[in-house]
């Protein structure tokens, strides 16, 4: 698992360690958004190995692949914060494009060296984003056939990494699959993301920054549902295909702010109404208006569906942050 100390990666690692007998190697450069305490300390250390590896470094990447000798690879390592990509795009090029290239180069050599039996069940799953498709009109939805139209340095580098993975599959035959997911949320998310930002700002009596008119629409999925989808695709997905993973929970950014503030009013009555902290600010450059995913392919082919509705999952999430306030005080 690359990026296994990140938000989504750590949830995946914990599920693999709790519910399977696989040996997990976590390849993570341990950047600002990585946290080792996301992975429970009481898990079987014989099944888990942390390798402090920056995929941008081809030598480190080679050594890590040789040491881990993998059969299944979940590639989640990526720089993912849009605002940071606008302020400093080079790091996103290095991590998302060159890092993916280096990983593909080493995995191709590794895959070619395997026995025929191991080759037959080797899989590489590249975890990407719906942001590669750009913005979509009202009443329309992204599908696996939607053309790429990235609008930010972040989404452009993720689109480039998708194209690299697809070309390595087509040209060299490496057994790769791509997923494109919507906005994730849940416990342990780094406090730069929208939902923990709302909670942190309210608890600190600070304004909640809301870009533009706040009507930007996003599709939301609880992180555990996303993990279940990734496992389904890895085990049952078609080599060379891509799968769009959505939660079918469309909310404007302002709706999310209002929902979280209303929950905080319930659990932190003494500081209500929390909605008073909402503050509209100038929009950011290249802000996509609407993301929405059509789940038909993964639902019909792999019989995957979400287990959590947004209201249930956001309640669980808000209560987790209230029970773990130290998580919100990390430097960004």
Radius of gyration: 20 Å
State the end-to-end CA separation: 24 Å
| Uncertain stretches of 5 or more adjacent residues | none
Average pLDDT, to the nearest integer?
94
Tell me the series of helices and strands, N- to C-terminal.
HEEHEHHHEHEEHEEHEEHEHH
Q: What is the helical fraction, as a range of percent?
A: 40-55%
Main sheet properties = 4 strands, parallel
Q: How many individual β-strands?
A: 11
Written overview of the protein:
The chain is globular and about 65 Å long. The protein has helices at residues 7-19, 58-68, 82-87, 89-113, 116-121, 153-172, 194-203, 223-236, 253-267, 296-302, 310-323; strands at residues 24-28, 48-52, 72-75, 123-129, 176-181, 183-185, 208-211, 217-222, 242-245, 250-252, 278-281. The protein has 332 residues and is of the alpha/beta class. Helix 2 packs parallel to helix 4 (89-113), helix 7 packs across helix 9 and helix 9 (253-267) packs across helix 11 (310-323). The protein has 11 helices and 11 strands. The mean pLDDT is 94. The strands form 4 sheets. Strands 3-4-5-9 form a 4-stranded parallel beta sheet, sandwiched between helices. The relative contact order is 0.13. Helix 6 links the parallel strand 4 (123-129) and strand 5.
């Amino acid at each position: 698992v690359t990026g296994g100390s990140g938000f989504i990666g750590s949830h995946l690692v914990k599920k693999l360690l709790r519910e399977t007998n696989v040996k997990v190697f976590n390849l993570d450069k341990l950047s600002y958004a990585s946290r080792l305490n996301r992975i429970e300390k009481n898990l079987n250390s014989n099944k888990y190995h942390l390798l402090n590896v920056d995929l941008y470094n081809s030598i480190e990447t080679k050594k890590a692949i040789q040491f881990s000798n993998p059969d299944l690879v979940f590639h989640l390592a990526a720089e993912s914060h849009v605002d940071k990509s606008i302020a400093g795009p080079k790091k996103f090029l290095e991590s998302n494009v060159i890092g993916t290239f280096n990983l593909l180069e080493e995995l191709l050599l590794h895959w070619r060296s395997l026995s025929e039996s191991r080759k037959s069940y080797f899989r590489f799953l590249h975890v990407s984003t719906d942001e590669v498709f750009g913005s979509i009109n009202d009443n329309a939805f992204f599908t696996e056939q939607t053309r790429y139209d990235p609008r930010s340095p972040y989404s452009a580098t993720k689109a480039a990494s998708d194209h690299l993975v697809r070309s390595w599959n087509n040209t060299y035959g490496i057994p790769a699959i791509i997923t494109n997911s919507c906005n994730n949320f849940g416990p342990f998310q780094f406090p730069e993301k929208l939902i923990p930002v709302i909670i942190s700002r309210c608890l600190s009596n600070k304004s909640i920054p809301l870009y533009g008119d706040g009507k930007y629409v996003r599709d939301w999925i609880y992180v555990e549902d996303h993990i279940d989808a990734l496992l389904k695709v890895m085990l049952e997905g078609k080599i060379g295909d891509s799968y769009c993973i959505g939660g079918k929970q469309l909310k404007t950014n302002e709706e999310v702010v209002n929902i979280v503030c209303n929950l905080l009013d319930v659990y932190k009555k003494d500081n209500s109404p929390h909605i008073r902290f909402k503050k509209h600010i100038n929009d950011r450059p290249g802000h996509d208006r609407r993301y929405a995913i059509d789940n038909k392919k993964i639902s019909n082919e792999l019989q995957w569906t979400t287990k959590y509705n947004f209201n249930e999952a956001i309640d669980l999430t808000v209560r987790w942050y209230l029970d773990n306030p130290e998580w919100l005080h990390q430097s960004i």
